[in-house]
Amino acid sequence: MNVVMHQVGAPGFLHRFEGLRERLPGGRLPWLAALRAQAAEAFRAQGFPTRRVEAWKYTDLAPVAEAGFDEPLTPMDDAMDLPPAQAGARAVFVDGRFRADLSSLDGLPFEVSSVARHLDALEGRLGALARPGEEPMAALNTMLFEDGLLLDLPEGVEGGVLELLSLATASERPSAFHPRHLIRLAKGAKLTLIETATGPEGARYLHNPVFEVEVAEGAWLTHGRLQQEAPRAFQLSTIYASVAAGGTYDNFTLNAGGRLVRNEIHVTLTGSGAACHMNGAQLLAGDQHADTTTALDHAAPSCASRQTYKTVLMGRSRGVFQGKILVRQAAQKTDGYQMNQALLLSPEAEMDSKPQLEIYADDVKCSHGATVGELDAEQVFYLRSRGIPETQARAMLVQAFLHEAVEGVTDEALRRALDAAVEGWWARQEETLAA
Amino acid sequence: MLKIEGLTATVDGKPILKGIDLEIPSGEVHAVMGPNGSGKSTLAYVLAGREGYEVTGGSVTWDGHDLLSMEPEERAAAGLFLAFQYPVELPGVGNATFLRTALNAIRRARGEPELDAMQFLKLARQRMRELSMPEDMLKRSVNVGFSGGEKKRNEILQLALLRPKFAVLDETDSGLDIDALRIVADGVNAMRGPDFTALVITHYQRLLDYIVPDRVHVLMNGRIVRSGGPELAKELESEGYAAIQARAA
User: Fold this and answer.
1) Which of A385, A403, A407 sits opposite B76 (nearest CB)?
2) Percent of chain B topping pLDDT 70
3) Residues of A in contact with B84 (CB under 8 A)
4) C or N: which end of chain B has fewer Cβ atoms within 10 Å?
């Protein structure tokens, strides 16, 4: 009788890497082989971080570390059920692999391609921003990535709206995939990228994407992320963005799906007048856990950063926000703002919040704030005194809180997608509450 | 008719209302005047059913309903309206949505058909013109960024839309300039008639020049110490609360 031994957790991934290393995409490219080997060493040394590691104090990866994951066995089915498109152009990834046959990319004023197909041209670019030595999830990604979105916007190009759809398939055993997306906007280019990540109801998987984003002088990237993974899925994503003078990186992340989710963003403002907006909403219920961790590096003068995150927690869910702002000595005239608000709708829900400012320049304006609370009793009473029943009054106030989270989004396509996602989420919660 | 008998209430365990007896026949407007800390606002909140205001004795009946056993929204459905001294800000809740939701909740309770968005807008715009309110106040979040006067006018707009049978106006005059005061008073006076009863709570006599009450009651230290006609308000204005207190003692 054959007994298949499944190794779990970090050793399982390292074992897979040892077995696969020659056959992974770009396995014969020496620079890439070296990059993967270094990442494997880093991952071997660190493993999945425990809560003793400061950066992971509030998020316990044990459910990921104790699970065994297989390679995704993607059915080669042309008639896949795709969610409705958010925009005209769409790049589709299934289980982390680019699917040209499912994508619709005609008529775009720039080229969209797959990282796997162009690895021989990516030396020095792939891995330029990611730090596998410091972030273990980036190490795991570097070790095992197979594919990703490769996007280059030439100088001055108005790219319009592109959707990145990441779809997982269901298989008998949990699967893991680690896409590496490379996005580069040349001088003055502009793009709205709307990313949707989802999977079928019962699917169990780990989606571990890493983004390396370069925004050149005067370019503007709106990066909207709608995280609506399957209810039992894990998503641990890490974004590295570097923004040059006068450029803007504008990220909005909606965390609404998944069982255990981390949205980790590292942004470096490298040139004068660069800007970064990191906003988001986390909508949590049941036993969901969602973590938003941001690290903003003000490395140049006269840059502005804005962060507003809102979390609604129901059931036994847990939310985390960690936000670090580093203002280097050179970064005079920095204007930084960070706000984190959470609404607890259940006595069993919990929110952890850790803002952190590290300022080495003397002429800066930096503020941060955090609130965690229940619905305001005075507001509920005001509505009830006007004849509005209590449940409806509470629903109005929750929707108002969520509305405020998305009202800052100026991009129309993204705003529509977010409004629909937020409304859908709330309607499902109301059904659950009514049942 | 509103009938309050032997009403006592505490806030944070501290007795504030110490036995209030008050009757307001239907169609009449009564004023309750009193110095700071006399229990005026507590009386208003107890009538509207706010949490944290604990009734320890007595009764309140309105049109035969036992008001104190009802939830705040049930009291509103039964025709009660409280104009807040400090109207509450609701960031993210559009004023139009708020007003229409409230109006339709009341209409449902009365067995009247609900208004759709168009019907509501037409009605709201008409009422706003009567109160000299700019139309953009419908688009803003409820009371957010409103001046003191705008907040009070928004309360009176709700009064005009919901058309309650019994209104409690809690220091609606505070923070209003004379023009705003006149607009607010006109709004209330327009409601007067056999089906409208009101309790006007105020510190100063000024408001009562514009909303002339049928009766005036003086509230001090949790009790009504004197009642009289509108002339009692003038007497208070010239002599002050201290004189009344000395005489009542």
Assistant:
1) A385
2) 99
3) 382
4) C
Establish, for the pair of chains A and B, how many residue pairs have beta carbons separated by less than 8 Å.
73
Question: Beta strands A89-94 and A158-167: pairing type?
Answer: parallel
pLDDT tens digits, B44-69:
999 999 999 999 999 999 998 999 99
Would you state the pLDDT for residue B249? 58
Q: State the Cα angle at B178 between B172 and B181, rounded to 5°.
A: 30
Radius of gyration of chain B measured on its C-alpha atoms: 18
- Mean pLDDT across A375-390: 96
Q: Do B93 and A389 touch (CB under 8 A)?
A: no
- Tell me the two tokens of residue A201: 């109801």
3-state secondary structure A362-423: CCCEEEEEEEEECCCHHHHHHHHCCCCCHHHHHHHHHHHHHHHHHCCCCCHHHHHHHHHHHH
Chain B residues inside the 8 Å CB shell of A390: 71, 73
Asked if A342 contacts A305 with a C-beta cutoff of 8 angstroms, the reply is no
Q: Which two tokens stand for residue B32?
A: 């309750």
The fraction of chain A above a pLDDT of 70, given in percent, is 97
Q: Which residues of A399-415 are buried (b: 16+ CB within 10 A; e: fewer)?
A: bbbbbbbbeebebebbb
Tell me the CATH number at B216. Answer: 3.40.50.300
Name, in order, each residue with C-beta under 8 angstroms of A431's C-beta and a sequence gap of 6 or more: none
Our count of domains for chain A comes to: 1
Residue A237 lies in a domain: yes
The interface predicted TM-score (ipTM) is: 0.96
The whole domain housing A219 covers 9-71+88-434
Domain that holds residue B227: 2-248
Kindly report the pTM of this predicted structure.
Answer: 0.85
pLDDT at residue A397 tops 70: yes
Closest CA relative to residue A142, chosen from A179, A114, A113, A171: A179
Determine phi and psi for A260, rounding to 5 degrees: -140, 120
In order of A5, A92, A111, A135, A143, the CA distances from A68 in angstroms are 10, 26, 37, 21, 17
> CA A24, CA B90: separation in Å to the nearest integer?
55
Compute φ and ψ for A219, nearest 5 degrees. -85, 165
Q: Decide: helix, strand or coil at residue A86.
A: coil
Which residue of B50, B92, B158 is in closest CB contact with A386? B158
